[in-house]
Amino acid sequence: MQKISNFIKTVWVVSWWMSVSAIIWLPIFLTGFFSKTGRLSFRLCQIWVWIAKGVTFTRVETVANPKVDKTKSYVIVSNHQSLLDIPALMLNTGLQFRWVLKKELGYIPFFGWALWGARHILVDRSQPKRALKNMNAAVKNLPPGVSVMVFPEGTRSDSGELGDFKVGGFLTAISSGLPILPVTINGSWKRMPNKNSLAFHPGKIQLVLGDPIDTTQYSKREIARLIQDSRNAVASRLNPEYPEKK
Description:
Number of helices: 8
Shape: globular
Strand content: 15-25%
CATH topology: Glycerol-3-phosphate (1)-acyltransferase
Order of helices and strands: HHEEHEHEHEHEHEH
Strand order of the largest sheet: 1-7-6-2-5-3-4
Low-confidence stretches: none
Helix content: 40-55%
Structural class: alpha/beta
Number of domains: 1
């Protein structure tokens, strides 16, 4: 019975996703191509992921932070528990940003074309030095007030636990002088626990904005300390029990 339920849920999500993607990719691509800032493309992407969140009956609780200046640019780093992290971050941080993603996603029909058009940063992970160079160049060309978003674990967690952080986004933060904004997501893994399946469980996700970390206080030789400080900031707000049963 559970397999049938999961199959129905997967078909439901895929049907909606493909239908919306087929409609909205072209407006995203065109507005990104002709716009100097890419802001309108991001707004259209938000509509896209709002629908994705809605069809999984997911609600997001945001814990805001008055220390976050929405007029500034950040390197946003977040834990990664499921695909539902993407709409939660895009809709609830209150910030415009560009994703750092593996370039293979750019080849997916409709979805990948929209990523290119919206000016998200697609890098070749098989060539770390070139990927870092491309990411640094893209960050330098960000419009004022636009951030960059990185999943420093590199992939989704299998268990909801926090993995090790990779170095790339932190080197870019030091090179650009942009502050790190740590963000913690709770409950996402429970909503979609199998990373190889789109079967979902309706419910709540929590998004917690941490305190920005001033990267000008770190040199490249201190990159390990910056990574650890950022990971500690994300870990300190993790709540494996969220949402708690009443």
